[in-house]
Each structure stands twice: as structure tokens, then as C-alpha cells.
Amino acid sequence: MSKKYIIYDIGGTYIKWAIATSDYQIIEKNKFAFDCANRDCKTELMDAIGKQIVEFVNKYPDICGIGISTAGDVDTNTTEIIGSAPNHKNYAKTNIKEALSQYTQLPIAIDNDANCAILGEHTKGILQNTDNAILITLGTDIGGGILINGNVYRGFKGSAGEVGYMHVLDRRWGTWFSAAGLSRLVKQNQNIDNLDPVIILKNDLKQYSKEVAYWYKGLSIGIANLITLFNPQKLIIGGGLSESNLINLKVINYIKNKILIESHLIDSCEIILSKHGNASALYGCIKMLNDKLE
Fold first, then answer.
1. Helices 280-293 + 113-124 axis angle, to 10
2. What are the backbone dihedrals phi and psi of residue 271, each rounded to the nearest 5 degrees, phi first?
3. Domain map (residue ranges) of the chain
4. Alpha-carbon distance 197 to 123, whole Å?
5. Which residues, 6+ apart, have CB-to-CB distance to 178 below 8 Å?
6. Which class would CATH give 4-117+280-293?
7. Low-confidence residues of the chain, pLDDT below 50?
8. pLDDT in tens, 200-239
9. What was the pLDDT predicted at 122?
10. What is the pTM of this model?
11. Helix (H) or strand (E) holding 17
């Protein structure tokens, strides 16, 4: 008999949630807005999630675990956020299990969002028959998940894959070459705010061609660096911008024709979009809970 879980995906502007089963069925899902950059994550965010958990448990009394995918460096054993980007106010050093203890005593499985995403793709997605891969998530920042010999690689202290901190073209990669980074470039150069990067890319808007070209250049250089370092079978592009089929083709062409011109590495690595997009982390959370509760 399948188990029921509560799943959370903590991003920078939205908190996605789902009620799911251990056999990867989604009963219901939705999201709520939360401005992590300007509201206190240690108190306000944890209270918002905790109160919702109480509501879910009242509605589904047979829930037996909580899975959390989150931005930031995570100690998966203690559930502490080791470090977080500036767009998550007062989030570092938050112990998730302790913060939610007044609301629930259910088991909690938690990991970095990109780690959850690559685990989800390896379990139920495009990486099911792949043991060596990189997944990057393009959202408010750029996250990275690393799969080596079929296992998620977390590094010495759980911070492996924090690729957004790399510097490309003298800029922080995650700040300027993420989904939000494209909007940031347009604002910097043309003083136009709040543009949707998906709309810019899908419609090939000519007035932003300079920013788009620079953005693709920086994104492609970072991806080429990861391919050179890890020699993966596949590099997966996930997150909100994975909806745009243009991205992988333009990145492949840029890397082939302008970066790794004399290298065979790009030919042995398939650059593709994630199967589940933003939902990849959800399936990864289910897998974490299945392993924890088996």
C-alpha cells in the first residue's frame, strides 16, 4: 500500500507544494508566493509552512513524511541550511526540523533543490539509464546537481554543485546568467524592469538581442566548463527556463562553434532539457522519503 507525503519546493519567490504518494502519484499540488529576499525565512517562512502542514495532516491523517527541496547548501542529516544566497533572508543556519517541530513530528527528508531535481530525473525521468550526469536549474539563481556512478555527489560538506557561485565573464554565474539574470541584464542596459525571460527567449524579441546574445555566451561558457570538468554522459537543463526548447540548441551550437572547438567532449555529452521541468525536484523528494522510510 502506498504512503502519502507532503512535498515542498522552496524557491526564491514561490513555495511549491504537493500531496503525493510513495508510488509517484500526485494527489494535488499548488504554490504560494513568498518573497524570500525581503521576508524572514527562519521565522515567517517556517511558520507559513508549518501552519500549512497542520492543515494538510488534518485533511490527510495518513500522511507519514515530509520531503523538502530547497535553495541553499543543506546538511541532509541534521536538516540545517548550511549557507544560502542573499535572496533568502536569514535562511542560513536555520534547522528545518527544529523550526517545524512545534507543528509536526513527522519524518523530514531534505536536500538542495538541484540535488533533488537530478535525483528525480534519475528515478523517474530522463536519466533513468544514465549514471554520470550534470543537471543545472535556471531560475532565480543557477543550481547544480551532480550524478557520479549513479549517486548524487554532495562533496565534503554537502555543498557540491553550487555552480551559481562560479564567475564567468567577470560576473557571478547564477546572478547574471540564470533566468532572473536575463531580466537583470535588460534592466541594467535598457532600464526596463520585470520582463519575463521566457517571453524574451520564446519570442526572439529583437530589441533585447544584445542582452540575449551576451546571456547565451555566459551561460554556454559555464556549461562548457562543467562538461570539461566532469565529462558527463548528459547535461540536463532544468528549472523554469527548461520550457524553452531554444535553449539547449543555442547552447550546443555556441559551445561547439565557439568554445570547445578542438575538443571531443561536447560530442560525447548530450545537452537536453529535463523531462519534468520544475517538477523534477518533487519526484526526487518522493525518492528521498521512500529511502528514508523503507
1. 80
2. -100, 115
3. 4-117+280-293, 127-274
4. 29
5. 138, 139, 140, 141, 142, 164
6. alpha beta
7. none
8. 888 878 899 999 999 999 999 999 999 999 999 999 998 8
9. 98
10. 0.92
11. strand 14-21
